Amino acid sequence: MTTILVTGGTGTLGRRLAERLRTDGHEVRVLSRHSQPYGVDLREGGPGLDAALVGVDTVVHCASTPLGGDERAAANLIAAARTAGVRHLVYISIVGVDRVPFGYYRMKLGVERLLEESGLGWTVLRATQFHDLLLRLFEGLARVPVMFLPAGVSDQPVEVAEVADRLVELAVGAPAGRVEDMAGPEVRTFESLTRAYLRASGKRRRLVHVPLWGAAYRGFRAGGHLAPERAVGKGTFEEYLAARSRTLRQVRH
Question: In angstroms, how far is the first alpha carbon of the chain from the final one?
Fold first, then answer.
């Protein structure tokens, strides 16, 4: 079995990925700003990053933040991976980063280009938004009696555990370049997804559709972040909400 480093290994995706890799018998190192013994801020790099990569065969790069710095972090990771002789760098990106001119998407696309030019063996998987992200969004919007939704926007959420399974397959395989996108099973309007959340949570809110502006909004309205032809995910948003509700009840009891 191989030694695999997972950056962002304490996050929503990275945690599940690390668990699956360990279950399969791989030695897994988790790197994040606060995890030990590999507590490293990739934006700063340094000796801690070099030490984390000693003897590593494959890196799965899940660390990311909308606050900025992803490209600097990736550049540091790539340089250290070259020095360490890493064979394969796998990156999780987002469907539509080359079609929707949204700041965070542009940053993710920039990381993809750094990988392509790195001289390392690389694989990039683009996925649609995770169910967990939508839940956090709706919980925030539901804090007030009226939920304001972007008019005319749909989404195609995917189960994060399924993305983790796919990344396991890619991590143990040979570098494959950009592989086929991974999207959830259904393209749904924001209103449909919001109503599913309200039913599951037992909340009552008035929904108001708000037309926004700008090139990024036009890109989302046009469905640039969707991949209906790659609806390979199985779990629906309702199934995710039901499973989460069962877990919360078990924890309480």
Answer: 39
Q: Are 219 and 101 in contact (CB under 8 A)?
A: yes
Q: What span, in angstroms and rounded, lies between the C-alpha atoms of 186 and 201? A: 21
Q: Which residues contact 56 (CB under 8 A, 6 or more apart)?
A: 3, 4, 5, 29, 81, 84, 86
Q: What is the pTM of this model?
A: 0.94
Domains of the chain: 3-252 (3.40.50.720)
Torsion sign across C-alpha atoms 168, 14, 112, 129? positive
> With bands split at pLDDT 50, 70 and 90, how would you rate the model's confidence at 154?
very high
Strands 154-155 and 188-189: antiparallel
105 vs 128: CA distance, rounded Å: 12
Residue 253 has pLDDT above 70, yes or no: no
- Residue 91's closest CA among 119, 59, 67, 69? 59
Measured CA to CA, the distance from residue 62 to residue 44 in angstroms comes to 17
Give the span between the Cα atoms of 235 and 206, in whole angstroms.
27
Hey, what are 32's tokens?
Answer: 């994040």
The gap from C-alpha 135 to its chain's centroid, in whole angstroms, comes to 14
Measured CA to CA in angstroms, residue 32 lies from 108, 109, 241 at distances of: 18, 22, 28
The residue with tokens 């690389």 is: 122
